[in-house]
From TrEMBL:
<feature type="signal peptide">
    <location>
        <begin position="1"/>
        <end position="17"/>
    </location>
</feature>
<protein>
    <recommendedName>
        <fullName>Entry exclusion lipoprotein TrbK</fullName>
    </recommendedName>
</protein>
<keyword id="KW-0732">Signal</keyword>
Length: 74
C-alpha cells in the first residue's frame, strides 16, 4: 500500500527538482554552446595567471561580465 503512494510522490519530487531554475551565464542572442565557449576561454585565460582560487572565481566573473554575460536565474 505504501509503495503505491510513495512511488508517484518520489517521481514528482524528482521531476520538480530537475525543473527548478539554476543560475547560469546568460547573454541575449547567444547560444548555450557559445556561452560555454566564452566561459571556457575566460577560465583558460585566468588559469594562466597564478592567483588564489577565490581570486580566480572573481576574475572569471569579471571576464564573463566584460563580454556582456550576466549570472542570472531564469
Amino acid at each position: 500500500m505504501h509503495a503505491k503512494i510513495l512511488a508517484p510522490l518520489a517521481i514528482a519530487l524528482l521531476v520538480s527538482a530537475c525543473s527548478s531554475p539554476q543560475p547560469t551565464w546568460r547573454k541575449a542572442s547567444v547560444t548555450p554552446d557559445d556561452t560555454k565557449s566564452a566561459l571556457a576561454q575566460c577560465k583558460y585565460d585566468v588559469g594562466l595567471s597564478k592567483v588564489a582560487e577565490a581570486k580566480e572565481q572573481e576574475l572569471v566573473r569579471s571576464c564573463m561580465e566584460s563580454k556582456g554575460f550576466r549570472w542570472v536565474t531564469y
